[in-house]
Amino acid sequence: MQRGTAAPERAAREATALAITVEGLTTGYRRGEPILRGVSFAVERGSLVGVLGPNGSGKSTLFRALLGLLPPWQGRVLVEGKPARPNPDIAYIPQRETIDWDFPVTVLDVTLMGRYPRLGLFRRPGKADRELALWALEQVGMLEFRDRLIVELSGGQRQRVFLARALAQEPEIFLLDEPVSGVDAPTQHFVFELLERLCRQGKTALVATHDLSCVAQRFDRVLLLNHEVIAYGPPQEVFTETLLNRTFQSHLLLLRYGDRVIVVESEDGDERSC
Ligand SMILES: Nc1ncnc2c1ncn2[C@@H]1O[C@H](COP(=O)(O)OP(=O)(O)OP(=O)(O)O)[C@@H](O)[C@H]1O
Prior knowledge:
The chain is an alpha/beta fold.
């Protein structure tokens, strides 16, 4: 009897603690050619999760499935306990290369776009939406640029504006696709400081990257993905030479000095220290 009442309570508690549950997800674009195979992992609310894998390994495809834009062929994807569907509680920050930067819009216009999923089809943004957009620009240090055209900004500044657009949406979950590729170290640091702050406030963030750089150490958990899950856990557990070689399928040499890590990629002799 006691067992019978405890189980539903436990299930309810677990359901509220988990922002994302992916179970046995197989999906893709063309029938018979799955991009993701049997992917399972769960993300606790308030965590900062890195999705690491080489180009073409299915990171953006996973995000499309979380956004409810790509239905599962097998398995299921739950967001806040419900099947994934387009939903204002999830904000997506796309890769910078996928955006038409020549479009003549101002920084404030782009940030206000974050309000549209909350407004519905026929409502225009009002004073409160504008104030929220200005607050979001302040959070990313771009308030003074609000009337500038987006085309006039540097890569790092554009990245901050897209973060502001996501903040203005007031989501519970942030999906960021390669947010720090091609931006300088101070901007990388700024992006992660902001994400860490949001996660401390109970928001959840997933960051896709193929870059095995310093940022990998800042995640609470890391999902190593190469069409299937290679490993999922805290960085200190999954950041091993064997698992990284299996994920990136090139010879990587990982050297540790205390909490410092040096990644040596043998293909191009590239060496980075974190
Ligand atoms: N719309 C689409 N239609 C058909 N195939 C697609 C589509 N989008 C992506 N793919 C294919 O799915 C595979 C995984 O792509 P995806 O963009 O998910 O990888 P990724 O890990 O995000 O890569 P990157 O690090 O280069 O962004 C690739 O082989 C890609 O060609």
